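pasting 3-isopropylmalate dehydratase small subunit for the record, 204 residues
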Amino acid sequence: MKAFTRETSTVVAIPGVNCDTDQIIPGRFLKSDRAQGYGQFLFHDIRRDESGELCAEFPLNRPGAEKATILLVEDNFGCGSSREGAVYTLADHGIRALIGPSFGDIFYNNALKNGIIPVTLPTAHCEALANHLAQYPDVEVTVDLEAEQLVLPGNLGTFPVKIDPFARDAILRGLDELQMTLTYLERIQAFEKARMASNPWLDR
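structre below
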C-alpha cells in the first residue's frame, strides 16, 4: 500500500446520490487480471456511451481531469455490494482521497485498507465546494492526514479529517494489516517462546 501523508490536488466532482459499487466498477470486469490495471474500468458504464467511447460531458473525461487525485462525491457513495474491486479501480486510476457527505460502510472500510482516504464533509459544505469548483475548476484541495485536516480553497474553510487511529497509522506508514502485524514479529515470537516454555505439553 502506498503511504498517504498529505495530498494536494485539483478535484473532480462526480454527480449522483447513491452511486453504488456497480457504477464504480461493473461486475463483469471483476474477473479481469488486476495486474493489467483496474483504472480503465472506473465508472465504465456511466462514463462511456453504448459504443464504448468516452462521453465528453462526464466530469472525469474533461481536459485536465486525469490529473486529479481527489474526487468530490455525493451522499452514500459506494453503497451496494461489498466488492473490493470498487476501491481497486479508484486506486489504480490514481485516486488518493474522496470527499463526500457519507459513504457505504463496507466501501469506507475497504478504502482505508487500500490507502484511500474517505473524508466525510457535511452536505452544505460539499455543495459549497461543488459550486466553487464549477466557477474555478483549477483550484486545489489538500487532504492532510498527518495534521488531520481538510483544507478547502478560497474562504470555504478547514475541516477535521478523522479516521480510525489504527487505520491512520497504517496508511501513514504505507502498511496493510498483515504488514502492520509483522512489525510486532519479535514480540510475537518472544511471547510464543515464553508460552511454550511455561506450557511444554503444547509441543507434544
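The two ends are 40 Å apart (CA to CA).
The chain has a mean pLDDT of 95.
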